[in-house]
Structures are given as structure tokens and as C-alpha cells.
Amino acid sequence: MHYRNVHLALAAALLALGAASAAAETPVERGRYLVETIGGCGNCHTPRGPGGAFAAGKDLAGGFVFDEKPFRAVASNITPDKETGIGNWTDAQIAKAIREGIRPDGSLIGPPMPFELYRRLSDSDLMAIVAYLRTVAPVGNKVQKSVYRIPLPPAYGPPVASVPDVPRADKVKYGEYLAGPVGHCTECHTPMVDGRRDWSRLGQGGEKFEGPWGIAVSRNLTPHPEDGLGKWTDAEIKRAITQGVSKNGAKLFPPMGYSFYAKVKDEDLDAIVAYLRSLKPLPRAN
Ligand code: HEC
Ligand code: HEC
Q1: Are 31 and 160 contained in the same domain?
Q2: Is 121 touching ligand 1 by the criterion CB < 6 Å?
Q3: What is the pLDDT of residues 85-113, one digit of tens each?
Q4: Does one domain contain both 61 and 160?
Q5: What is the pTM of this model?
Q6: Residue 5 falls within a domain, yes or no?
Q7: Residue 35 sits in the same domain as residue 64
Q8: Are 62 and 141 contacting, i.e. CB atoms less than 8 angstroms apart?
Q9: Residues 199-213 pLDDT 10s
Q10: Is the CB of 109 under 6 A from ligand 1?
Q11: What is the number of the ligand closest to the CA of 223?
């Protein structure tokens, strides 16, 4: 009798353990998910070949050029190659570069890497991203130095001490975290005024992106019934994010990273949609 009880307790404990380990991701798995899907680091950091397709075997090896009036920025090689990548940096140094935009030599990393948002990456997600970057295949690729014709600030803010995880049970809050600090949707979809993001017009769109596709203007993501997503179904919003297809069936242009977002988990898309529906409705940006 006694024996049996012990066995049952043990079986229950083992079951609980199995369930927990099935649900919990390792930091590397979490990091891979963030980098390869909602974070879309490769949309900027993976070089492209002719026709704009990502170069095979060069994941995160850098070299993509952002040629704009205020800067000619070249995306860095963030593979663990020791000569041309970040292979010699410590975990803490990589983390500081991503969240605060400061390299080990103290220099500031410039735009368009979205530091205003990355400052709010949680400690555990940041360390997961670092852990994953360590597992990426090293690629030797020396990239040119970026040139900034605008003065960069001395820093993007005071040192970030600690950022707690955002509870996933709060859908709107977690959606804000995914669409902001992780996915930087709000960076492209919020207008700039005099070189600064106007956060009072969060999600209004109207930013122009020039490329081989011509000029794409970021859309209004607020729930405005005529000018925004107010009349869109959840499925239509998710299709636009993951497949690059608008409500009317028209194909959407880059630079939004549809191919990365295609692999975002459905529960995370639900959180993003819930967040977008919570935004203040705004008319179209002019
Ligand atoms: C919108 C484009 C963009 C996105 C998205 C982006 N980056 Fe960057 N990143 C850049 C550019 C451009 C630079 C180089 C800027 C410079 O030269 O000062 C850079 C620099 C870096 C550096 C500094 C490396 C070095 O050698 O100086 C690290 C580390 C980095 N990015 C990691 C990441 C990670 C991890 C992600 C995803 C979570 C990411 N980046 C997303 C554009 C981007
Ligand atoms: C690098 C900039 C960039 C990022 C990051 C970005 N977008 Fe976009 N987005 C655009 C642009 C530009 C368009 C318009 C493309 C076109 O006109 O063909 C667009 C279109 C859309 C549309 C289609 C709306 C319509 O009216 O057809 C939706 C929905 C959308 N984005 C949501 C998001 C969400 C959610 C995220 C984050 C997961 C995101 N975007 C990240 C630039 C971006």
C-alpha cells in the first residue's frame, strides 16, 4: 500500500516534469524564434543577391546598405566569425550592443537599427537572442564602415539595468511588446517629424520607403474605420503580416519582412492584433 503511493507520487512528479519541459523552450530555441520570425534581424543583417533574394549560406553576415540622405549605413556581420563578425565579443558585450547600441570599444551603433525600441527588450529575451547568435554558422564577410552625415547622440539613454518579462496572459500588453520592442512594427508605422518619431501618432503610418520596388508608404495600423484597420477581420490583418497581402488582395511591397513574420506563432499574431485594435484611431497621415 505504502509502496504504491510512493510510485504514484513519483509517476505524477515525472509527468509534471515531462509537461514542463515540453512547454518550456530553451534560451537558444527562444532566441532562434525571436531572431528568425518576429524580430526579423535578418531582414537587415542578411545580405541579398541579385533580384533582392537573401544570399544563400550568409545568414546574418551583414553588408546590406541603407543609402539615405542622413546616412549610408551598412548592416554589421553579427555571425560568430572572429575576424569579421562578433565572435570575440562576450555575451554581455553583445547584449549591450543590441539593447543600448554601444560596442565594446564604446562607439555608438547608428540607425536604422531600432534602439529606441530595443531598449525595452526583456533581460531573458535579450540573453536568449545572444545565446542563439552564438550558435549561428560563422561567415567571414568584412563589411564597409557606415557613414553618418547627421550627428549621433552620445548614447540612446542611460544604461539599462534590468527589464522584466511582459506577462503573455495580458494579450494587449504582450502584443505591444511584440509589435514594439521585438518586432519594431511601430518604428516603421509611426511618422517621423524633424528626425524624431512622433509617438503621439503611434501606428498612423505615412513613412516612405524607397527601393527597387519604387516607393512604399507604411500603412495606418490604427482601428480608424476608413483609413486604418477598423473594418478588417483578424484573419485579414494576420494575412497582411504573414503573407504580404492587403485586404483587397493586392500584394504588399518590402521592406516589411513578411517572410520572417510568416513563421510567427498564431498566439503571438493574436496578441499583435489585440494590441493594434487597442490603438487610438487616427485618420490617414498626409
Ligand atoms: C532596420 C534594420 C536593422 C534591424 C531590424 C536590426 N539591425 Fe542590427 N544593425 C543594423 C545596422 C545598419 C547596423 C550597423 C550600424 C552602424 O554601423 O553603426 C547594426 C548593428 C548591429 C550590431 C553591432 C555589430 C557591430 O559589429 O558593430 C549588432 C550586435 C546588431 N546590429 C544586432 C542585431 C540584432 C540581434 C537584431 C535583431 C534583434 C538587429 N540587429 C536588428 C540594422 C538593423
Ligand atoms: C521596415 C518597415 C516595416 C516594418 C518593420 C513593418 N512594416 Fe508593416 N508595412 C510597411 C510598409 C512600407 C507597408 C506598405 C507596403 C505597400 O504599400 O505595399 C506595410 C504594410 C502593412 C500592413 C498592410 C496594411 C494595408 O493597408 O494593406 C499591415 C497590416 C502591417 N504593415 C502591419 C505590420 C506589423 C503588425 C508589423 C510588425 C509585426 C509591421 N507591419 C512591420 C513597413 C513596415
Answers
A1: yes
A2: no
A3: 999 999 999 999 999 999 999 999 999 99
A4: yes
A5: 0.93
A6: no
A7: yes
A8: yes
A9: 999 999 999 999 888
A10: yes
A11: 2
